[in-house]
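Could you join me in thinking about how sequence relates to backbone shape in a protein? We need material for that, and I hope you will provide a protein of your own picking. Label the sequence line and the structure token line clearly, so we can match residues to local backbone shapes. Would you write everything just below, so we can both look at the same thing?
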Amino acid sequence: MQNLPFVISLVFIVIVLLTFYFASEACRNNKKVLILLSIWLLLIGILSVNDVFKITDRFPPRIMISVFAWIVVIIAFFFTKAGKFFIDTLEIRWITILHIIRFPVELILFWLFTKGAVPKEMTFEGGNLDILSGITAPIVFYFAFVRKSMSNKTVLAWNLICLILLMNIVVRAILSLPTPFQKIGMLHPNIAVLHFPFTLLPAFIVPIVLFAHLAAIRQLIKK
């Protein structure tokens, strides 16, 4: 990863900070949530610079442990009274516009592909269409929450479609990790997410995006 221009890492860090900002606005700047997110970012950063996530010859790969931790947290939110109350208090406007970050993330993935750090299958040229989520997010935000001319059913459908697009790239990213279970990207495995700051893609950005979709779907169905 030493051949990567520093500007790629710098731009990605800006995307991480933007994700944090949207998340903070969505939870109405809940201090406890912001402190926990800050601690998590710091922890992932420390583990990353100490090469913990570069261990991929064991199951599960170390980077996946951070993902599993998020899955447990998300499940806890949806199956506890306090968690469901928190979800229902989130600002749906902010958890909608949050998805705009997926546009620059896809550009970063393509940039990393040109440097041999991720496979083509993880880019919009290789079948990853998640960039459409980022492109359409401001459109949905404008018509649903500014003009208020888009129905809840349409917003719900958009969330479901974008959730499928998210799952598509997540599966591609997992199957292209340099592990004994790698299935795609043999020539250029997904090594970027094993290095800081790109470890924050599976360990922070993707879980936040996933949670935003699930929270929005819950709120829209209740409406």
